[in-house]
Amino acid sequence: MEAGRVPVDRGAAMSADDQLRRFVINRVMCQLRLDLGEVEARFDRPSRAAIEADLRSGLDELTADGLVAFDGQVLEVTPLGQLLVRNVAMLFDSYLKKPDGSQKFSRTV
To answer: How many CB atoms lie within 10 A of CB 98?
Structure first.
């Protein structure tokens, strides 16, 4: 700081999509709910649409397993889902989705 430089040796710049997904995953894991209206208000309509697309891709399975409830606006993690909240949050992690079908990170179960 005294030298007039930021005292950081390394870091990672977050894209707008990274910031959106950080917000969404944080809401799911910490508050056990995700309000799509809040996503749209904080980011924008295309961001909400991207999150809704992710949600549609795995909602049926999560609902059938009793992990979440979704009323079209708010996703709620159920008490059972709290035990597997990481699985719910993974739905929104774009770094897990690789075009060749391989996994970048370990499985949860």
So the answer is: 10
- Phi and psi for 74 in degrees, rounded to 5? -120, 130
Tell me which residue has tokens 């944080």: 26
Q: Which residues contact 36 (CB under 8 A, 6 or more apart)?
A: 48, 51, 52, 73, 74, 75
DSSP state for residue 31 in the 8-state scheme: I
Give me the numbers of helices (H) and strands (E) for the chain, helices first please: 5, 3
Q: How far is CA 21 from CA 6, 7, 79, in A?
A: 27, 27, 23
Tokens 């007039």, residue located: 4
Contact of 87 with 67, CB cutoff 8 Å: yes
With beta carbons less than 8 A apart as the criterion, state whether 31 and 68 touch: no
For the chain of 109 residues, list the mean pLDDT of each consecutive stretch of 10: 75 88 96 97 95 92 95 96 94 78 57
State the distance between the two ends of the chain, measured CA to CA, in whole angstroms: 46
Q: Quick check: pTM over 0.85?
A: no
